[in-house]
Amino acid sequence: MDLHVDSRNTARYTLRPFRKRDAETLLEAVRHSMPDLYPFLPWATHGYNQVNATRFIRDATHAWREQRAFNFAIRDAEGAGPHLGNVFVLYVSKSSRTGEIGYWINSGNTSQGIATEVTARIVQVAFEELGLHRVVLRIAVGNRPSERVAEKLGFTREGVLREELEVHGTWLDHTAYSMLEREYVSAENDIAAFVEYQSKAI
Description:
Helix content is 35%, strand content 31%. By secondary structure, the chain is an alpha+beta fold. It has a single domain (8-195), classed as 3-Layer(aba) Sandwich (Aminopeptidase). The protein has an 8-stranded mixed β-sheet with strand order 1-2-3-4-5-6-8-7, sandwiched between helices. A hairpin with a 2-residue loop joins strand 7 and strand 8 (170-180).
């Protein structure tokens, strides 16, 4: 299924495709969050600059146009304010209807339940709009806040992918989590509660 270039909303946030003018606020958020991003993400380098931010937005726009990957900027409910982070869903295999979700949150806005709320919304997008059968999360071992998001949303821990990704000269293990289509159907109301910021577990 093709994913339309529209904003999606949660109770507190707007998730929208990136725009060219987002480069400056994206850069500010990345630089502010660098101590938290650097250990886990290969693109997070201390030299990250305006060129990198502009290139990311260009590539994200191109990937959306080709229906390969769908990156959303996280903003407040009015779609304004500072850049709160990124969340995406991409195809791992269209033929197998498998996708992957990932996210990062501006370090100035962590511990507010943002990651859980927006990821729950993208889980809805993955199963309801893209028609996926299986959705995976790959989380670096030691990144406990991200692991808690997967656990809250009901993803199943499958195991550890050993030395899966090299980040700044260090090979990182990743924990694989997954959710199947039938599991989403069973958990649909719980996922919706996170989106509406009504779950006590958020």
